[in-house]
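Structure ticket #2291
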Amino acid sequence: QVQLVESGGGSVQSGGSLRLSCAASLYTYSRYWMAWFRQGPGKEREGVAAITSDGSTLYTETVKGRFSISQDNAKNTLSLQMTSLKPEDTAMYYCAAESPTYYSGGYYYFGRYFGYWGQGTQVTVSS
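Resolution: structure written out below.
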């Protein structure tokens, strides 16, 4: 059973920073990709950043240079450092893990299927 638990969300002013964390249980980071997604009010869920099985990082264009994804394999923790936050970054942020099996409700990002999800953590950026 894969369990993902996010933490670190909150409210900040434009230009501020936040760090999100995701604790995972019973999952092998080194085999699969991990990612952060977000879903803003009235918007579709979208991928934000991903880390591949070999440790490479990928980002959606709108967050490049501002967000940084990282993982600590020893602690089974995925992180997302967010800087220069903008009001349009306001969203529920979700930690996700690639799944070899298709599950209803999953999303593709950079061609990989993410079927395991955390409950989400809210990020609110005020102008």
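Closing remark: The radius of gyration is 14 Å.
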